[in-house]
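Something for you to look into today, if you have time. Could you write out one complete protein record for me, on any chain you like? The space below this message is yours for that.
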Amino acid sequence: MTTTDNADNESQEIEHKKLSVKNVAVNDISSTSDELIGWINSRRSMGNLDEPAPTRAQIESAIECAATAPDHKKLRPWRFIVTQGEARHELGRALLEAAQAKALQDGEELSEKTITKTQNMPLRAPLIITAVTQMQEHKKVPPFEQMLSAGAAVQNLILALKAQGFSTVWRTGLLCNEPAVKAYFGVGADDYVTAFVYTGTSPKDESKRKPIDIEPLVRFES
């Protein structure tokens, strides 16, 4: 094989690994804007989820949507770890280790009920997508912008999963950034576990959201 052939193959491989960007024209959107807004407004957090969970292809599709989040200087400070099956038990052990370390630091002792509850936290859904924020030094992108970008990515992820028929709940909690949990995910001391997105199928129908009074939330200036 020639050097040129090697270069072409490497180029094709790199291109294949790039996120595929789906450009959709406005005319190709089947829903009207009112329907789309209504659909977004219908999003609800749903706990205690069951099978089926999204497939790998569906997860990757949702992560493509997550990667379209506003991202100043294209730092891509977010990463996603998918946990399912037996790996959920390993995550449960990491959470318990974090809880025990925190209790020891606070001069407390965990009850058997708390130990069991903590270990079983990841079993509340068949699949968990963990979003982590890897902070990067950049003179034009302060840490708060990177964290907000990660939050926007998580919201895109959740909506994309909803579009594919799955329910989610965004959990974090007091343990998510304890050393044992950060170590489990390979997250640096100055970085963050931003979200545990519990994902699956809800045995219950989503309840309708009450109308939200936005008047105290917005100010118009002209």
Remarks:
- The longest strand covers residues 192-200.
